[in-house]
Amino acid sequence: MKAHTEYLTFQTKKHREYINITDRVAAALTASGIAEGMVLVSAMHITAGVWVNDAEDGLIADIDEWLEHLAPFKKDYRHHRTGEDNGDSHLKSLLVHHQVIVPVTRGKLDLGPWQQVYYAEFDGQRPKRLVIKVMGE
Amino acid sequence: MKAHTEYLTFQTKKHREYINITDRVAAALTASGIAEGMVLVSAMHITAGVWVNDAEDGLIADIDEWLEHLAPFKKDYRHHRTGEDNGDSHLKSLLVHHQVIVPVTRGKLDLGPWQQVYYAEFDGQRPKRLVIKVMGE
Amino acid sequence: MKAHTEYLTFQTKKHREYINITDRVAAALTASGIAEGMVLVSAMHITAGVWVNDAEDGLIADIDEWLEHLAPFKKDYRHHRTGEDNGDSHLKSLLVHHQVIVPVTRGKLDLGPWQQVYYAEFDGQRPKRLVIKVMGE
Predict the structure, then answer these.
(1) ipTM score of the complex?
(2) pLDDT 10s digit of each residue in chain C, 137 long?
(3) Which of A54, A105, A106 would you mutate first to test chain B, the one with the most B CBs within 10 A?
(4) Of B123, C26, C78, C93, most Cβ neighbours within 10 A?
């Protein structure tokens, strides 16, 4: 089994931001030379997520509103006694999960026609890392 | 590392439907000849999910009701300005995640006694694909 | 590809409990001798979860309260007609997902500085199993 590892760093302008990283995942796959296997795409922070879904701006805004509804910013999370103010960002990360696996078949990301890989930043405006690990033959 | 890839297509009768695919995942494993590794089971659409949980009809109905409560059908999702009407299906997919990994040990799916693999269709009545990728030795 | 498999068993004192298992995942990696690859950490029960997030007690209490809010204990789940009373535990498991993949790079868990692996018990006080599967070279 071969493995190829890359790290991306994001510094978003907004507190919450959603970034289509499909092309960067595909580039890591190309660099790996792997034809059959998978790519793990995983946030390295606990206030960010990774998902596979549609690249449609209206939907992205719907998702953001929905996440704020289910895991709202609040002042009074216990976590804030540590001096943090990002309790909601942790909950949002848990809700959408922090990683996906993209299968690799015949040298290509084996995604459906509308599947795009997104990095979901829930507490940005500072450097945040993500790991892309390609594994296979 | 060996890899074996299969695609399933579902065309459900209902808009939302939950299908136990454990036997089909096990059949793909048998066809692969792999003894140690894992099986990735991943929806190829952005309005479907895959989970591992109980094969109990009452629970399945509970899950369906719960998902409709947390990610309800609504007319006014921004996504619907594209002509779609399935905003809730995308949110339900994000909530339950679109994929699982089943470990493979000594040639068998290494699942607990009640763990069953389900395909969760949130916008059916048309052909939808899923990829099963077995990887290992 | 090499594979190394371990099983952990938990018997929690409380009905819901959250256990940091990062050291045990790291120990399984060391035992495997694998330098490049990944570790699958997956609950073998359908009323438990596994996540990667912060080891901060206030946050853990926030997560517990939030999960109880989104997937509450109720008497009247249909699942309870089977004699069970843990419908909420299944929903909590679906919400946080039952597994994570930890990438392995140069013989170490390739986690960010605050990322810790947790076993989340939603229906404890009885023996529950989890599988750790290390795969790679």
Answers:
(1) 0.97
(2) 999 999 999 999 999 999 999 999 999 999 999 999 999 999 999 999 999 999 999 999 999 999 999 999 999 999 999 999 999 999 999 999 999 999 999 999 999 999 999 999 999 999 999 999 999 99
(3) A54
(4) C93
As a whole number of angstroms, the distance between CA B95 and CA C61 comes to 21
Looking at residue B4, its amino acid is H
Tell me which of A42, A69, A74, A85 to substitute to probe the interface with C (most C C-beta atoms closer than 10 Å).
Answer: A42
The single-letter code of the amino acid at A69 is H
Verdict on whether the full-model pTM lies above 0.95: yes
User: Which structure tokens are listed for B122?
Assistant: 């949130």
Hey, which residues does B52 pair with through a beta bridge?
B117
CA–CA separation, B64 vs B96, rounded Å? 11
- Tell me if residue A116 falls in helix, strand or coil: strand
Q: What is the DSSP string of B43-105?
A: ESSTTEEEEEE---HHHHHHHHHHHHHHS---TT-GGGGGT---HHHHHHHHHH-SEEEEEEE
